[in-house]
C-alpha cells in the first residue's frame, strides 16, 4: 500500500519491486514506465555479485 501513494517514486525506488514469480506488477506510473526505468538504471549500475551474495 505504501508504494501506491509514494509521491517520489523515482527517488524511493518502488519501481524495482517485482511480483513473487519475477514478473512485473503494479506501478503507479504504469507498467510501460516501469519497463523503461529498469533497464535504464541497469545501464548505470555495477554490482559485485560475489560481495552481494555474502552481505
UniProtKB/TrEMBL annotation:
Catalysed transformations (reactions): a 6-O-methyl-2'-deoxyguanosine in DNA + L-cysteinyl-[protein] = S-methyl-L-cysteinyl-[protein] + a 2'-deoxyguanosine in DNA; a 4-O-methyl-thymidine in DNA + L-cysteinyl-[protein] = a thymidine in DNA + S-methyl-L-cysteinyl-[protein]
CDD domains on file: ATase
Alphabetical UniProt keywords: DNA damage, DNA repair, Methyltransferase, Transferase
Residue intervals of the Methylated-DNA-[protein]-cysteine S-methyltransferase DNA binding domain: 2-42
Pfam family, one: DNA_binding_1
PANTHER family: METHYLATED-DNA--PROTEIN-CYSTEINE METHYLTRANSFERASE (PTHR10815:SF13)
The protein's name in its UniProt record: MGMT family protein
Organism, as annotated: Pseudomonas juntendi
Amino acid at each position: 500500500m505504501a508504494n501506491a501513494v509514494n509521491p517520489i517514486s523515482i527517488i524511493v525506488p518502488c519501481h524495482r519491486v517485482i511480483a513473487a514469480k519475477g514478473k512485473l506488477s503494479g506501478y503507479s506510473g504504469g507498467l510501460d514506465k516501469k519497463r523503461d526505468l529498469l533497464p535504464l538504471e541497469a545501464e548505470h549500475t555495477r554490482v559485485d555479485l560475489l560481495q552481494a551474495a555474502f552481505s
